[in-house]
Amino acid sequence: MILITGATDGLGRYVAGELVKSGERVIAHGRNEARLAELAELGAETVRADLAELRQVDRLADEILARHDRLDVLVNNAGIGTGSDFSRREESPDGVELRFAVNYLAGHHLTRRLLPLLRASAPAKVVNVASVGQSPIDFADPMLTRSYDGMRAYSQSKLAQIMFTIDLAEELAGTGVTVNALHPATMMPTTMVRESGAGSMSTIEEGGAAVLRLIRASDDVTGAYFNGTTRSRPNAQAADPEARRNLRALSERLVAAALG
């Protein structure tokens, strides 16, 4: 069973469709009921939640835990791009900077909640869809309340995904659960890219091939970051154990504050 978040459009929709066509059992997540119905017609199981709100992430996890006792692959793909207006800072319903909330914190919490299913299915995989655009997190102002820039917000949320990837891979070493991150392709013609006004450089098929390679990989590589299909080095902060500890502590505080 493979769970893909953000599966109703763009890269996630392509990957979900390819997996269903190849006979895989897929759980497709999204917010749009009509688009989820289209995936259900293809043969995917569907779940609906707005990942901007951690209580909905929790409800999503509860739903999957109630339906299934194993999960082979979790693909954290849902995200928010830079959009057309970089200057406007937005917050999630939980008071978290919106890109950090959706691109990173939702996947962090969902993964943590679903670890029992992944462990039960080991060998299992977590695939985090990150980006080559990465900015170090300023832990004195991680929510960018003093100086906001949309590109920086996006880039630090994507680096946070990679830092979480390395941290979780170390935690799960020897369990049979691997955790890897990738930048699938550059400027694919997704909704996020169209909203930014930028032109596309890569195809969704190229990005999808990179994601599918990690989903189907038979090796035990873990804690790695890939640019497309090539193993690469992320921003230097990802290799800093203290920065990763700071991110872990920040994440735990934000989740505890949201869920009470």
CATH topology: the name is: Rossmann fold
CATH architecture: 3-Layer(aba) Sandwich
Order of helices and strands: EHEHEHEHEHEHHEEH
Give the overall pLDDT as a whole number: 93
Task: Name the CATH class.
Answer: Alpha Beta
Label the overall shape. globular
What is the helix content?
40-55%
What is Rg?
A: 17 Å
Task: Give a topology summary.
Blueprint: E1 2-4, H1 10-21, E2 26-30, H2 33-42, E3 45-48, H3 54-67, E4 73-76, H4 98-121, E5 124-129, H5 150-171, E6 177-183, H6 191-196, H7 204-216, E7 225-227, E8 230-232, H8 241-259
Parallel strand pairs: 1-2, 1-4, 2-3, 4-5, 5-6, 6-7
Antiparallel strand pairs: 7-8
Short description:
This protein is an alpha/beta fold and 260 residues long.
Characterization of this structure:
- An eight-stranded mixed β-sheet has the order 3-2-1-4-5-6-7-8, with helices on both faces.
- The chain contains eight helices and eight strands; from the N terminus they run E-H-E-H-E-H-E-H-E-H-E-H-H-E-E-H.
- The chain has a single domain, classed as Rossmann fold (3-Layer(aba) Sandwich).
- With 260 residues, the protein is α/β, with parallel strands linked by helices.
- The radius of gyration is 17 Å and the shape is globular.
Task: Jot down its keywords.
260 residues, alpha/beta, single chain
